[in-house]
Amino acid sequence: MRAPVKAPSTWGSTARRLAYHRGAISQLPLASRLIAAPARIYQHYLSGGKPFTSSTFKLQEQSQPINMGSNIKNLDGLKEHLTHDKLDELRNFWFEHIPEMADRIIAPQELQKRWFFSDKEFDNVCVTRFSPILEAIRDAGVTSAQELLSVAQPLNSLDWLSLIILLDQIPRNSYRGEKSSICFTYFDPIAQQVSLEAIKQGIPDKAPEIRWVFSHRNWFYMPLMHSEDISAHVKAVAAFDKMNQDILSLMEGTGGVDEYERKAREVVQADPEAAKSVGETNKVFEEKHKVIIERFGRYPHRNKALGREATPEEVEFLESGGDTFGS
To answer: Pfam families given for it (predicted)?
Structure first.
């Protein structure tokens, strides 16, 4: 059993700001409150009034991502849907089944199934609560990370995490079957741009609430894994390897330069085999994706959704049980 993460049990006046949680948050331990509370509130609480983005990791001004040929857009209308509160709501929903911080750091396989196995009930929640944001993005004609970020205005690393999940994961739960082409042709390119911008800023491996909480960090690399561009997979392999090295670095020693590293070291040393498994599984899964792109230059299992004609080699690959990653 992993050692519990000890923390204060009082929330104080901030609980009054969370009325929509029916007053329950004030009764929870800190690890649970980190999941339930909006980022801007719990960051203030954890760091003594100094948000992560200003005290431990300062966001850079956004560089100019490649524009994908956009024209004049209705971005003002999107602002009503893509709000900071909605980003908080999405992140809280995505991690609501992981109430313990220890399990956020090294997520047990059983808890990861919700994300990686098709479940109609889970899909329905994604569609009902978050697909309106996706449709608003499409209606606004957004075609680049630059445009999306100009509206979203992420305030901290956790806002960036929410954006990655919104663009890379929610479409996969919202547009299945024949509609999945919307993921591959529209949202995936934007998600990959946002991912690359986040990596360029150093968010996944410098912001402690991302770097040392590995069930946060891995989402930043998923858009690269989903790409059919081999150069994205080269970056993904390097990113997952770096994450694995960070996990291994926690196997020894004590303490850490910040609260998150200290907690991560405690969790990893409590169950080193589980920690090793998380690091290795991510690396292996990316390699499985990469070898398909190296062989075919694309994912054969997407051919039908994209109206592409399969080559004989691709047909043989699929009929012989080649990886389709749940599609």
So the answer is: DUF924
Q: pLDDT tens track of the chain, all 327 residues? A: 434 333 333 333 333 333 333 333 333 333 333 434 344 433 433 333 333 333 356 676 654 443 444 445 688 889 999 999 999 999 999 999 998 999 999 999 999 999 998 899 999 999 999 999 999 999 999 999 999 999 999 999 999 999 999 999 999 999 998 899 999 999 999 999 999 999 999 999 999 999 999 999 999 999 999 999 999 999 999 999 999 999 999 999 999 999 999 999 999 999 999 999 999 999 999 999 999 999 999 999 999 999 999 999 999 999 999 999 876
Cα 153 vs. chain centroid, distance in angstroms?
A: 17
Domain count, the chain: 1
Distance from C-alpha of 281 to C-alpha of 325, rounded to nearest angstrom: 14
- Whether 129 is covered by a domain: the verdict is yes
| Among 234, 169, 167, residue whose Cα is nearest residue 198 | 167
1 lies in a domain? no
Domain carrying residue 18: 12-217
Q: What are phi and psi of 88, to 5 degrees?
A: -60, -45
Which residue type sits at 134?
Answer: L
Could you give the CA distance from residue 97 to residue 88 in angstroms, rounded to a whole number? 15
Instruction: Please report whether residue 324 resides in a domain.
Output: no
CA–CA dist 101, 120 (Å, integer): 27
Angle between helices 272-296 and 230-249 (to 10 degrees): 170
Q: How far is CA 61 from CA 64, 194, 197, 250, in A?
A: 10, 14, 11, 31
